[in-house]
Automatic annotation (TrEMBL):
GO terms of molecular function: DNA binding
Keyword Transcription carried by entry: yes
InterPro entries the UniProt entry points to: HTH_LacI, Lambda_DNA-bd_dom_sf, Peripla_BP/Lac1_sug-bd_dom, Peripla_BP_I
Residue span, HTH lacI-type domain: 4-58
UniProt keyword terms in alphabetical order: DNA-binding, Transcription, Transcription regulation
The organism of origin for this protein: Clostridium tetani
Gene3D superfamilies: 3.40.50.2300, lambda repressor-like DNA-binding domains
Protein name: LacI family transcriptional regulator
Organism placement in taxonomy: Bacteria, Bacillati, Bacillota, Clostridia, Eubacteriales
One BP annotation, GO: regulation of DNA-templated transcription
Amino acid sequence: MSKITIKEVAKRANVSTATVSRVLNNNYPVSDEARKEVLKAASELNYKPNGVARSLKKNKTNLIGIIVADISNPFFMSVARGVESVVSEEYNLILSSTDESPDKEVKLLNMMLEKKVDGIVIASSNIDSSAIKSIIASGIKLVLIDRKVDDVTLDYIANDNFNGSFLLTESLIKKGHKDIAIVNGCLNVTTAIERFNGYRAAMNKYGLKIDKDFILQGNYSASIAFVETRNLIRKGKLPTALLSANNSMTEGIMKALKSEKVRIPEDISLVSFGEITNQEFIEPKITCIKQNPFLMGQKAGEVILDKLNGKSKEDNFKEVVLINEFCEGNSIKSLI
């Protein structure tokens, strides 16, 4: 198959070859509509700029963009610090938050293009890969953290979400729990899918049925998890245990339980994928999967630095899955 040329991209996008060059090299202002059409055409044709074309981008900005799902979550702030610890001698960072909004993520990616960043580290909140494909087509280096994106092959640094969730659920089952609810993130991100699958696999292994009323969507938000948990309690159908799929939601769940005078673990057991803030000062200590977000950030920083410095081949992608630590607290009541 012959290699796709810049002329073919221009024809598909119905623009001039000069406009295609300006968009892909990000070295001259063009209209938003033209940029969108060029990046779409380049993605559809799987166009890869050659070395000469890429060299037209004469000015490095020494900027790396970091796009996270929730800038207020200590997990993502620690990830950002990890990236910074590796790249700070050569690059400055632009840190942005999608607030779990796919639309906002697209706007932030376009902003990164306008800023002419050299690379992007992203925890995507978007099940649609078209925006990510546009970034790839532009030639900007990109590393995924925490979450995968469908239909793209990229460097990826993440936690072992399935096994972590499986272990948490199993820890409840081994203490005699059968009615176990999960407060999960939205299923448009892979972490939520993988953590739900781990929960379901553990329930299936021990022959336990999942009550559909016990599957709650907290959108990885403390405030939404608070409302979902409170609503569950007020329905009068309380599970014996709750699995929270991230640290922010755990805090929202705990506030809801306290507001409704439901005690941990006397009235309900609670486990968390992710350690809550100031856990050492809180009773009971929540049994959790302890993550290492700083290490995740360091690994992502190392990978993108290698890409930017030409130490890693463009088609050589790494997938790093970090092993989590199971930390037993005193938030599980034994029913045996």
